[in-house]
What does this fold into?
Amino acid sequence: MNFQLPEIHISLMLPELFLFIWALLIITFDVVTKRKNEHTVGYLALLGLLIDGAILSVTGYGSGFGNMFFNDPMALFFKVIFLGSAFMAIASSFGLMHQKIVNHRGEFYALILFSTVGMMFLSSSDELLSLYIGLELTTIPLFVLAAFFKDDRLSVEAGMKYFVIGAFSSALMLYGISFLYGLSGTTDLVQMKINLAITHLTFKDIGVILSLAVLLILGGIGFKLALPPFHQWTPDVYEGAPTPVAAFLSVGSKAAGLVAFAKIFINGLYAFYGAEMAPNDWGRLVGVGAILAMIIGNVVAIRQTNIKRMLGYSSIAQVGYIMIGMVSMNEFGLTSVGFYMFTYMFANMGAFAVVAFFEDKSGSCQISSYRGLSKTSPFLATSLTMFLLSLAGIPPLAGFVAKYAVFAAAINMATSGVAYHWIFWLVGIGLLTSVFALFYYVNPVKQMFFSKEDSPYKISLSAPAFTVVLIGLIGIVLFGLYPDPILQFASQISASFGFLPH
Amino acid sequence: MTKYAFLIPLLPLLAFVLIVFFFRWKEKLSSLFAIAMIIISWVMSVMVLLETIARHGAPYEAFYQFINLPKFILEIGILVDPLTAVMLMVVTTVGACVEVYSIGYMHGDPRFSRFFAYLSLFLFSMLGLVVANNFFMIFIFWELVGLTSYLLIGFWFEKKSAADACKKAFITTRVGDLGFLVGLFMMGFYLGTFNYGGVFEKVAAGVVPAGILTLMAIFVFGGAVGKSAQFPLHVWLPDAMEGPTPVSALIHAATMVAAGVYLVARSITLYVGSTEASLVVAVIGIVTSVMAATIALVQNDIKRVLAYSTISQLGYMIMALGLYGYDTSLGHHSAGFYAGTFHLMTHAFFKGLLFLGAGSVIHAVHTNDIQDMGGLLSKTKITAYTFMIASLSISGIFPFSGFWSKDEVIASTGGHPIFMFLTLVVAFMTAFYMWRLCFLTFFGKPRDQHRFEHAHESPKVMTVPLMILAFLSIFAGWVGLPWLSNGFSSFVFHGEAYKTEASWLMMTISTIVAGSGIVVAYLMYYKKVISPERMMERFKPIYTLLYNKYYFDELYQVGVLNPVMAFGRLMWKFDAKVIDGLVNFTGWFTIVWADIQQWFDKWIIDGAVNGSGWLVRQGANVLKFIQSGSMQFYALFILTGIVLFGIFKFELVFISYRWPTLSIIFILSVVLLAGVSRMIQGGYETNENAESEE
It folds into this structure.
């Protein structure tokens, strides 16, 4: 019997392992110091993320564990986003810790780190099983985090909903994965592309089952992305969950969903993309989802009075724009997706951070209670304005370049052949709805700046809070004016998926 | 110095930043710093202009590429050519005058510093727009000037009219901007560059199919239509007069509204390449010009008359540029480009002066209504005389600067009799309404004795800018004297320099036309030989039509706003109801289901009738269905989504499936799921998180 152990290359996994151990240490530290440490645990968590970033920067590309673990530019790029969003989420939760969570700080931070580890594993897996495990590892800590205020009905309800819906869609996805395995006989995504093509040639009638698999997996990942019609949990959960957790959900978890989507649908199922009658042509389905996302997200957000719900709908809309880039299968498509996600991290985490600080102080998330904030806390008001304008895609902020890149990629794709003309619809609706979007993004700005009375709240920022806002501001301004390095880096993602510039 | 031209916009930006963050509590420092910055910019602009003249108009370009991907290049840079140099001059001159004037006009305003901050931000954006070397940058600054215009129109946002006006201006111009953006996308896609030189090179090389070029040019023109308040997007400019008068002078008369003209002039190569697009531009220009001039005849608000006059004059320039494109594309020689840009320059000075003068009058009598003025000549001498100089200039009386530029615009219609006729009609009307304004304001008996007695001349800080602009209103046009061998026409030109010739016939005709306009106004409003009231009576329908501005606002309310609002409400309900009819059908089905249930309960399980009651109640509640807050339903909805997608997909797979069959499957499945979900939900009260608006 000739049995060969696969090569391990454990050094590739160093960032994940480090972060995992660090999270365990944080819990231990919290317990050992009898939970009397105030903010020390939080700073430790931030420190861990910084060290992990440093480790990540020296970890090379390559594959290990018998191709179960795979470091490529995409993994690296998205790991930066995961670490960044975890960093900003943790740094913006200090006020919350101080007021509401007295006894479980260690767990709170450790769970965020565990979830981050899950995302990092996910982005490094090129194989369905490990990918699924990564996805679960990402989501399960988030269930707990969403319900972290044990005494708050809304929070518990949010956690419960998120958990049940999440479990449900996981089951759907797993069911879809089992179909794919049945059809192709492998869980390795690259091999799957080949096997599916062969199966398709041999047995003409795999279409229905393959379609079913695509639909089920789309449902499962659509839940993670909050892509309509799988979006309904989003506003409810964002409203109930602790604000930093909602922020982390809207960026980290979403980015993880994007990675999973790109891996399964592009690596595994790309073979017949775009062919009119192909059984696994998922492009139009995602296109319909994107259209629904842009319309539902942008239009319903207009009516929201709670800023967290509004940002929830806004995140649904943003996913619509991101998916425009995703269905553009050329060298710009994935580049624009990566770039969009990167800038979205700064703007959205920043906006949520400001919302969190405001909530810490005032206890309110109503847009109307932001009235007159520019007079008492000009810096915070200006920052929130910048974040919202970046989300709306106003030049010269980064959100504009991101939208531009996505639309440019889509137009490029749409004009490359008759089979892709439907992408024009996405671009048209995207442009139209981004005009609607201005209405609700400007609404809080109006409240803050154009109100006669002064706000009763004067918000002073702690050092970590200030850091978060500053990182967000620097991100949206710097990468709005000088997006070139990020675009160059993101273009390696396209290249690693085989979309080379021609 | 040209090398450092990028500093010209940055200095006002510096003023903006410093005022906002450091000087805002020190009013005097704020205003003086802002003025100091714009004056330095002005000095630099003068030097840049002189250097450009010394270079014989050779363009200077410097840029840096900030995105450089294959097929996707964005750059940031400056281009200084004669057109830019002249525009820099105009913007900084009027900007400096207006800022000095504002010290007096805004005196005592609680947001004095903020006003100067906004003005500085505007000047930054406007100057940036002018020095940009590519269309992408123009678009960024284009949006920025729109934003500052929004902020400044709504400066007194306590007034509801001002708050409404700024929204109207912002949204209306954005309609045009959308066109511009589409034009930009087409440019990016077909040409792969936004750089002026790159774009023109590729257009000249015929890279773009003719039809596409026409579309692109028309879309780009859409931006100009919005910004320059051309028909049919002109409605925002008169309302924008709600802003402080210095703002009207700077933004809504001299500079920002001229940005549309500048854009057309800048991208004139696109129009030269397309006869059709040029014709569209010319026709829109003349239609706007005639329409606005007729409205201006009967308005009573001094600033609104000037606003319509501005729209009309902008129409003139746009028409001249359009005709240039038209003639040149057909191989004829045309003065249009030179005439349009020349008029752009002279108009900035005299229209800025008119607005500042109007502001001074309003400052004196505290009303905008010319029917409440009269006889102010004795009270406000400097204002009155400078205002009349500007009026003579805009009317086109020899030798004021307006005469020279207007003459060229009329001359540029040479080969087009209809255009020539209409431009002369507009010239007549312009002279008439301007002098109607003068006579009603400054001459005759005071019609409001109380206001008259309290009227006083404005302080020096306001009258000195008036005098500077009056000087320019007389002499600025002389740079384009037809006898000069190196005049404006050989400095600012596109393609081949236009050789101006003095046409005595043309000059005589235009002077007669303008003069007769003044004489008619004189007879009607000074001598009272012709009674305006009787004219009004006689032409009642026309008067009403003009007085109500052709009912454009009402038309847009009914034709655009109401449908959009209705559509908005409809769309908002989308998430709550997915598709109205479908849900109603579900509701109907639920009721029927309730009936069946009732029947079942009543006759089969007698006594267990309670359930039917809630089923009917649920039937009524069915509308707040989707975002119900119920977890079970969300899960079910995910399944529905998959089924929906499945149907959508299988239609793609088995194209032979007939559409009606699919609809039936679709509806049935949704209805089934909906019914089942209500059964599952039962009596649970899980609406904790239900949509707040329901």
User: Anything to note?
Assistant: The beta strands of chain A are 62-64, 69-71. Chain A touches chain B through 73 residues (CB under 8 Å). Residues 282-502 of chain A form one domain. Chain A has a mean pLDDT of 87.
